[in-house]
Amino acid sequence: MMVRPLHSLVAVLGSLIGATTALAADFQVSTALLDNGLFVAVVEDHRAPIVTQMLYYRAGSADELPNQRGIAHYLEHMMFQGTSTTPGPEFRGVIARFGGRENATTSQDTTTYFQTVGKEALELVIRLEADRMHNLTISERAFNSEKEVIKEERRGRYENEPGGAFAEQYTAAQYLVHPYGNPIIGHMHEIEALTVQDALDWYKKWYVPNNATLVIAGDTTMDEVLPLAKKYYGAIPRGAEPVRFRPKEPPQLAERRVIMYDSRVRTPSLSRSYLAPSQTARDGTAEALTILASALSGSTGRFYQKLVVEQGVASGAGAGYGGAALNDTTFGVSVSPRRGVDIAVAERALDAEIDRLLRDGITAEEVELAKSGIVDGLIFARDNVMGLARRVGNGLSIGMTVEEVTSLSDRMKAVTVARVNEAAKRVFDKRRSVTGMLLPPLAAPTPPAAVTPAAAVTP
Amino acid sequence: MIRVLFVALVALAGVALAPRDGAAMDIQRMTTPIGIDLWYVREPSLPIIAANIVFTEAGAATVPADKLGIGYFVQVLLDEGAGDLTSLQFQRKLDELSLDMNFDVGTDTFGATLRVLTERREEGFTLLGLALSKPRFDEEPVQRMRAALNADLTNRMDDPDDIINRAFVQRMFPTHGYGRSARGTPEILETLTRADLVDFVQTRFTRDRLVVGAVGDVPIEEMARLIDLAVGGLPATGPKLTIPEVTPVIADEVQVIRRDMPQSTVLIGSYGIKREDPDYYAAAVLNATLGGTSFMSRLWDELREQRGLVYSVSTSNAVLEHTAYFVGYAATNNERVAESIDLMRAGIERVLREGITQAELDSARTYLLGSFALSLDTNARIARTLVSMQVSKLGPEYMDQRAALYGAVTLDDIKRVARRMFLGDANAQGPAKLSTIVIGDPARVGKGG
Questions:
Q1: Which one, out of A3, A73, B228, B447, has a CA that is 20 to 30 A from the CA of A277?
Q2: If one looks up domain A20-235 in CATH, what number appears?
Q3: Is B12 a domain residue?
Q4: Which residue, of B197, B231, B265, is where some domain finishes?
């Protein structure tokens, strides 16, 4: 994170194409583009001699074909299993051994690998990450063993968790054809069916420098990063340009309801999602919806104040919007009825608040408060350079520009009350919604299971 | 500037990387005008102040059995009205000023954190002071938060992770406060009164219990003034709430809590090494090697990499103010629970019999030194570290001594600590004493830990 201004430094470096230095309001990012198409961004923070590398591939679960669902996440696991130059155990141990942190994450739109290390290890992590961009090896044995790991991950998140199982059903109901409805990890039978060849095909198609964004954050500069990026990533040839195919979701004409009863659930809850444009729509709706979500949620927000404090029909209520997506996303609202209150009563109260919002509009005071909270939040965000790196990597990976990513304050300040009301009218259309309820079983709950010593269990 | 100094050698030709030998932070100390010992790191590059204020001997373990959960009830009510401000007025102030104010009741301590833009420091620390010294506990927020907590606790009562954690500590500490559920039960919650809330605050939020750390861009004298603004209204002293020292009870058998779900969770308990114990550093090395680190520990390799049994397996030497215990965790499908427990047990037995290798000792040492240095990456985390060092009775010089403390650990130390951790005595012999709990529907779980 930059407090003093960042000097412009990359524009003249020889082998670059279109190197630029962005000068923007919220925080500073230097950028460069390698010959092979790898985009490089550096976010400086010199408070401590620590650096974070994040490598983003523009490939996520929503890019999978129907016969390879789960492969984006599966390949992310296999990326820790070693390369033709560095065997798996060596690869996995090297960063942890000196205290570094590393992990990876797969989303619907991206797959990301990241490490945080002391700055003296920057070259090491760049070398290792570049190595597995093109030298990955996948053995049948490691692939099959990892399959069991992934199945355990899935069991832990979905089969074992009523909330997870419900979320999977609920999300699926929002999309008729768009793959955002699929679970990132894949269904159990889909994971089961994946092969080494599926993984290799995925790797070859998407893991090319021209489909990646490298973000380095921390105690370094583009002057230090660029030679290393060129030395290691620059040696990898450009690949065929992978093309993302995203089916377009047809208009939703009928509201959908998903109701799940589970014996493990004790208190009912209601969630509702509305299809909504993402940041990539670039029509100002995403900014307006970000402010709307802020005004509706939190303990001073409308929903909590009306449903929980004033009416007492709920124990919790909120709203949320995830605008950082490549395609149309969702605006969500939720309510948990207070004990003894029927969930239908809580839902009617929520609907009444939405109707009131559409009828009377949001107030200027609410919009101003939400704006200042978001703008101040960007100052606090500078305390976490990895968070800034994530903003840059995620934004660039869905096609935003550096200027867009770093000008959030200005874009938020420009949102008007009329714009928020317009966005609310556009989104809050019940025909374009899914209402989900996760409920305790209809029958009386089973008595608590007895605690038994294992000696009583048949061996 | 936060100066974190590393002495490091890097050999980039191979993948070998030499250790960070140490980390040092520029810690300033000052006694505030009203007598609070302040630890401070000045960080001029951000217009933010992050403070962490902790009361020792004020956590859930200080609460009698019939008032369980009172600390958590207080935690959620402190920002629901204080001084002249009603709940809504207080919450509005937090929003308008973009104050990030949080409270957290732990097992041993009650903590407050405040993150504030420097230009709003006066209002921020004044409000924190109101919350700590003049909480209102008005009828409306008390009833509202009681309802919210009731829903939360009702869910927790039947949540498998919660059930096994409660069963685990209850079994390890059957007659001690550490064995009780910190958040209480829905039944107890209904009996807690406003007088209980007031009593908790008056007896625990006292200046003699305070430990304070902060990071900011103002001079330390100004920081000291702000701390006094937040805690000056508190009573100087409070009643002594002594918690007895305790050693965990190791049942040395497998307990199964039957639940109809496909994946079981396993917890394995044994003895731990307390923070002030000279063997603490050896215990940290042993734990890192056995299961304390992803990607490089023995159990991670055995269970996840070699056999694909688990998504995650981990161990820790859990340290509390008046005890310590070992806990190992794994989650696996019901069919493979027995195999997983056997492998965890075998890993523990191997450490007990053979200790670890010099290469493992070296790796664990560099991991522990480096990961600590890397954790000091945000102002908020540094403020918390300043507090935890004081709670652990470490001086600022600890930053310079860490490398030597870990460097002094020998392979023989590891073997001795293994006996202390898994037999309960440095001179004992025999198989490891392990208290194992499983929740799920495991097949073929054998007898014995």
A1: A73
A2: 3.30.830.10
A3: no
A4: B231
3-state DSSP helix/strand/coil percent for chain A, to nearest 5? 45, 20, 35
Mark whether B89 and B139 lie in a shared domain. yes
- Residues of the domain holding B298: 254-440
Search chain A and give the residue with CA nearest B439.
A451
Same domain, B401 and B289: yes
Assigned token pair, B230:
């937040």
Q: What is the CATH number of the domain that holds B189?
A: 3.30.830.10
Assess if residue B131 is contained within a domain.
yes
Quickly state the pLDDT bin for B17 (edges 50, 70, 90). very low
Three-state DSSP string of A129-196: HHHHHHCECCCHHHHHHHHHHHHHHHHHHHHCCHHHHHHHHHHHHHCCCCHHHCCCCCCHHHHHHCCH
Query: Which residues on chain A are in Cβ contact (under 8 Å) with B309?
Result: 148-149, 152
| Fold (topology level) of A256-439 | Cytochrome Bc1 Complex; Chain A, domain 1 (3.30.830)
Annotated active-site residue in A76, A168, A287, A353: A76
CA distances from A202 to A71, A197, A244, B406 (A): 7, 8, 12, 44
184-243 of B, contacting A, C-beta below 8 A: none
Q: In degrees rounded to 5, what are phi and psi of residue B212?
A: -130, 135
Choose among B45, B296, B368: nearest Cβ to A47: B45
- Collect all residues of chain B within an 8 Å Cβ-Cβ radius of residue A384: 377-378
Q: Are residues B191 and B301 in the same domain?
A: no
Is A386 in contact with B377 (Cβ distance < 8 A)?
Answer: yes
B381 near A CB under 8 A? no
How far does the CA of residue A455 sit from the closest CA of chain B (Å)? Answer: 6
Amino acid at B424: G
When pLDDT is cut at 50, 70 and 90, the band that residue A453 belongs to is very low
Two tokens at A382?
């500078």
In a domain, B5, yes or no: no
In a domain, B296, yes or no: yes
B198, B282: one domain:
no
pLDDT band at B181 (very low <50, low <70, confident <90, very high): confident
SS3 category, A31: strand
Q: How would you list the strands of the sheet with A329-337, edge to edge? A: A256-261, A433-439, A269-276, A329-337, A314-321
Q: What is the pLDDT of residues A61-76, one digit of tens each?
A: 999 999 999 999 999 9
pLDDT, mean of residues A319-346: 96
Taking CA atoms, what residue in B is nearest to A81? B305
pLDDT tens string B312-352? 999 999 999 999 999 999 999 999 999 999 999 999 999 99
B407 to chain A, any CB pair closer than 8 A? The answer is: no
Domain boundaries, chain A: 20-235, 256-439
**Nearest CA of chain A to the CA of B286: how many Å?**
14
* Rounded Cα gap, residues B289 and B356, in angstroms: 8
Q: Do A315 and B148 touch (CB under 8 A)?
A: yes
Is residue A76 among the annotated active site residues? Answer: yes
Residues B84 and B156 reside in one and the same domain: yes
As for how many domains chain B has, the answer is 2
